[in-house]
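This section describes the prediction task in plain terms. A model, or a person checking by hand, is given the sequence of a single protein chain and must write out its three-dimensional structure as a string of tokens. No templates, partner chains or ligands are provided. The sample shown here is typical of the held-out split.
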Amino acid sequence: MVKLYADEDGHEAVRAVDALVVSAIARVEVPAALWRKQRLGELLVADASRLTRAFEVDYGGSESGEPPRLVAVAATAGVLEAAADLVAVHPLGAYDAVQLASAITARRAEPDCQTFACFDSGLRAAAARSGFRLLPECD
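The expected answer:
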């Protein structure tokens, strides 16, 4: 998700996607990652603030009525249960497990949801084992 906003390696592949489904925890994950980049000296305060605002519009829409770009899957009890089950099968951290469980939930609701965008090798492997096509297509 951060690649939508910060110019990191591979950002072109993610920015080329028209519609993205994310877990509701992205509401915390993305600003946390952007502000971490600022604290590490990778972004200026003004840039972290601007990129965070851009994410917030994509996540929730704008006051002028622009609809959200992202579709968020709520972190329901069912999604969290699925995430807890995933960590028994895959070596995932908590947030990564919730992201994958959210993608699986989205795919159940919309079978065309078949692609998982990720750059973390462990999460990519778990998504592939869960039947997703991966973006980017190769490491």
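For orientation: The chain has one domain: 2-135.
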